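Structure, all two chains, one model.
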Amino acid sequence: DIQMTQSPSSLSASVGDRVIITCRASQRIDSFLNWYQQKPGKAPKLLIFTASSLQIGVPSRFSGSGSGTDFTLTISNLQPEDFATYYCQQSYKTPLTFGGGTKVEIK
Amino acid sequence: EVQLVESGGGLVQPGGSLRLSCVASGFSVTTSYISWVRQAPGKGLEWVSVFYAGGSPSYADSVKGRFTMSRDDSQNTLFLQMDSLTPDDTAVYYCARDRTVTTGGFDYWGQGTLVTVSS
């Protein structure tokens, strides 16, 4: 199975900050990497697919990069509605696997 | 409008069974990949199974041999039959649709249904 390791597991940031979350795959997954945002009691929401493509309707302050094994999610100019938990997920092969999550909290 | 609606969750004793449903609207399940993803209380996301558009299901090792995914094309509905349940299966179960069958990424999710396995 492909293991997905996210870091950090949590972080504190202020409105307007730039936040970077990293995700590392245990083997090469090309660009088959997706990012989700989840708020308490809600289903996850797709933000980024194939490592760097912005899902329709997602603000442009979200961006993704990387390929192979190392990926990043960047949130520029953090907004109040961005405080949530973020997950990476590989869609290279089954079993599909998620990272452990990064909780972004208000400083 | 694309929508997924799960149902069938509830409280069940260890060793028991439960059948979840995922009703799709706004698209055809026969041309999409639909997965079940679960989330234990306070924990992260775990992929459970996928039903390929034209093929057979695939399962996570943690549920293989106990869970069975099926599809009713006439109802545009997916099912997850869960047998031999254990407390570790306690979670909110979501069904989710792959964006495309080639690159993945779950673009639509249901609201989730809670399964609690406890005596």
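The two ends of chain B are 40 Å apart (CA to CA).
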